[in-house]
Amino acid sequence: MPSAVIDLGTNTCNLVIVRTNKDGKQELIYSGSEPVKLGQGGIDKRIITPDAMQRGLKAISNHLNRIQNAGCENVRAIATSAVRNAQNKDAFLNLIREKTGLEFEVITGDKEAEYIYKGAKLAVGFQKEKVLILDIGGGSNEFIIGNGREIYWKQSFEIGVARIREKFKPKDPISDEEIKQIEAHFDHHLTPLWQAVTEHPVSTLIGCSGAFDSFVDMLEGLEPESTFRVKTEIAPMDFFSLHHKIVISDHATRKTMKGLDLVRIEMIVIASIFVNFVLRKLNIHTIIQSGYALKEGVLAEMLNTDHLG
Question: Does 235 lie in the same domain as 124?
Fold first, then answer.
């Protein structure tokens, strides 16, 4: 029977469904996302607003229809930063349970990082060399240093793009001074990362999340989510060129950018600033986009497999 994982994030609610074939291999049936923007209007106050709850409930209901149509019996539902930090999370989880019957597991940032590592490892297949894995979220950003054998260090930072946007409320287009202020904020909060890479040097960044998917779509000029990729290497100079285009753009211009998903028009500027800052700070030489992240890591654990899709 097919198995499914729902990943309820701050900006999007993601779903993956796979079926185990007769030969024991996993066949990907569905992978996609629904916008939720759970952080809009409340993330800085540590609440999920009534409107955000309704957006979340709608997205979950849409995914539940896909799960039921696929005949899934093995389902896990995971919630991350926006929910775990919300003072009214119990009311939201009770609403979901009442309307859909789904019981969401709210995981810690540490557990989130562990699942992201498992997902990225499936996609990229890194071996002995230590790599830095980054998952950009709306509520939190996870960093993991590891190789094909083990995790050496991991940490979740509550400096996701939705939190930064709510805190700084940048102009459109963003100003150079605002970029400097945001980078200083990142620099301060990422002190544990700077210490970790001193002990565990890395030159490769594995990027997970919709932001990295969008970067590749934009570089290739493809419609959002029109192509599923397990992994794609991004030339650093290509990213830096794209970053410049993003940060000088306004909302209207970003709406016309091919490859940029409409749900990411507001958040892509902060995401690009964050990635650009980390790349330059750590002198990263190789960037690889991973099509797998948290939900695939959860799925791999559920099915006890080292191969998906």
Answer: yes
Is residue 93 domain-resident? Answer: yes
Kind and range of the H or E element at 219?
Answer: helix 210-220
Give the torsion through C-alpha atoms of 84, 82, 214, 190, to 10 deg. -70
Say whether 258 sits in a helix, a strand or coil.
coil
Residues 53 and 37: their CA atoms lie apart, in Å, by 9
Answer yes or no: are the C-beta atoms of 129 and 120 closer than 8 Å: no
Summary count for the chain: helices (H), strands (E): 12, 11
Alpha-carbon span 158 to 186, nearest angstrom? 10
The residues with which 74 forms a beta bridge, in sequence order, are: 3
CA separation for the pair 309, 292 (Å, rounded)? 10
If asked whether residues 29 and 49 sit together in one domain, one would say yes
- Same domain as 92, residue 130: no
Residue (of 172, 191, 184, 183) closest to 273 by Cα position: 183
34 and 154, same domain (yes or no): no
DSSP symbols for 113-146: HHHHHHHHHHHH---SS-EEEEEE-SS-EEEEEE
Q: What angle do CA 177, 38, 175 make, to 5 degrees?
A: 10
Confirm if 34 and 55 have CB atoms less than 8 A apart: no
- pLDDT-derived band at 272 (thresholds 50, 70, 90) equals very high
pLDDT tens string 125-180: 989 999 999 999 999 999 999 999 999 999 999 999 999 999 999 999 999 999 99
Q: Count of domains in the chain?
A: 2
User: Which residue type sits at 25?
Assistant: K
The two beta strands, 26-35 and 12-20, are: antiparallel
Does 124 lie in the same domain as 99? Answer: no
In this structure, the answer to whether residues 132 and 274 fall within a common structural domain is yes
Tell me, yes or no, whether 99 lies in a domain.
yes
Range of the domain at 279: 110-290
Place of tokens 């654990």: 301
Report yes or no: 181 and 165 within 8 Å, Cβ to Cβ: no
Integer-rounded Cα Rg, in Å, for the chain is 18
